[in-house]
UniProtKB/TrEMBL annotation:
InterPro entries recorded: Glutathione_S-Trfase_N (IPR004045), Thioredoxin-like_sf (IPR036249)
Organism expressing this protein natively: Leptospira gomenensis
Top-level division of the source organism's lineage: Bacteria
Name this protein carries in UniProt: Glutaredoxin
Signal sequence bounds: none
Amino acid sequence: MKLYQYRTCPYSSYVREEFEKMGLVPGKDYELVEASRGTPGREEVIRLGGLSQVPFLVDGDTKLYESRDIVAYVRRKRGF
Ligand SMILES: N[C@@H](CCC(=O)N[C@@H](CS)C(=O)NCC(=O)O)C(=O)O
């Protein structure tokens, strides 16, 4: 599971915080990818999802842009 994001984006912070509440550890349970504008991470977001927006989650074939959808998806996946 990869979360494309950047530190000062409030929607990205919300997702990171909710992941932390679920006990998910970056670097262990998911990969954090720096995706502020102009970074290779942002290019990947556009290539994979078609939009230049973060946070963006990729989990296998699942690709999600909306922070609330990302949190809801991972909650469901973790059985919360
Ligand atoms: N409704 C979206 C909003 C996401 C959003 O507005 N993200 C901003 C950054 S915080 C963004 O990607 N803006 C375009 C950009 O940074 O190029 C969500 O909840 O995830």
